[in-house]
Amino acid sequence: MKRSAFSIHAIRAAALVLAISSLAGCDTLNDWFASDRVDYKTTGSAPPLKVPSDLQEAKTQPQYTAPPVSAALGGAPTRNVTAAGNSSEGVPTAHDPLGMHVERDGDRRWLVVDGRSPEQLWPQLEEFWKNNGFVLKTDTPATGIMTTDWAENRANIPDDWFRRTIGHLIDFAYSSGTRDRFRTLVVRGADGSTDISITHSALEEMLTGQDKDSSRWVERPRNPVLEAVFLAKLMEQFGLTDAQSKQLLTDARSASAPATVDMSGGATTLALADRFDVAWLRVGLALDRTNFTVDNRDREKGLYYVRYADSTEELKRDGLFGKLFFSSAPKQKTGKEFLVNVRGNGSGTEVSVLDANGQIDASAEAKNIISLLHAQLN
């Protein structure tokens, strides 16, 4: 029996076309900073309870007030008042009067928070993503990696007259046909600061078949502007105003240095002019933007443990139909694991791929990883 034209796929297709049309020309930072451009929050939550007009709201006694969810063991760090009057999470200095600044490498940006350790900021990062409507899938302070589950930006669905009237009854059927995921990398700085980067990954549902009655997920490019939006939101949680966070993004300091390929001795490595702590962060960011997932990392040994990851397969298994048709047993890690080594080399840093014996891997796969890193670092 042929499907009705009013199918979920048809709704999704129409919504996606309208969404793309509405986003045409909307690729500047100011456009994306509009409050209605980002909406990942759960739509099925109940409205907040209100006190009836004929009753007075009882005053809450201090001893019954729950502590902030961001408070770690021993309490959250005390904020500092800046010369501008902000209650900043960072420690203000003459170099950073707001207690933080943004650095960039091409279109990649990361936040540097002065005087705070990853342990102090981690609970607030957890709270940040949950407050923005995300579920954390990876939350490992030991490795400094925090990853959200795939989520839909509901702001991409046009709020037309049909959806506002009849459509709200079947709002669950509306979909932008896109999913986003964000990965937070938290790195301890050499001077007591903490570097925080946010990386965006994206998938898009493409209709397939002659009658467009089936679909598949395909990867789409990361959106550096969307990364900047969430970096600005994080700065606001750390105490900056909307205007200050945008200004720090605009004034992002260049931290780039060229990466060159060294093929001497039969092995392929990368040479960076950065000191180790900067190179360690840059390589971590570069790996984040490839199809390699960082399973673990050991800064003392200068090692990233990575493997190839298929995002579309992951979403297929984690989605509704995946839960019905795939085993509920814990998923085994698939694919060969590689060791990406970052080590100081004189005044610069060398990046290589090591084999199981700790020697530089000369295989075609290792050379491909070096090539991908070189493209990301330049």
TrEMBL record:
Residues 1-24 form the signal peptide. InterPro entries: BamC_C, NlpB/DapX. Residues 79-90 have a biased composition (Polar residues). Keywords: Signal. Residues 43-99 are annotated as: Disordered. Coiled coil: none annotated. This is Outer membrane protein assembly factor BamC. The lineage of its organism: Bacteria, Pseudomonadati, Pseudomonadota, Betaproteobacteria, Burkholderiales.
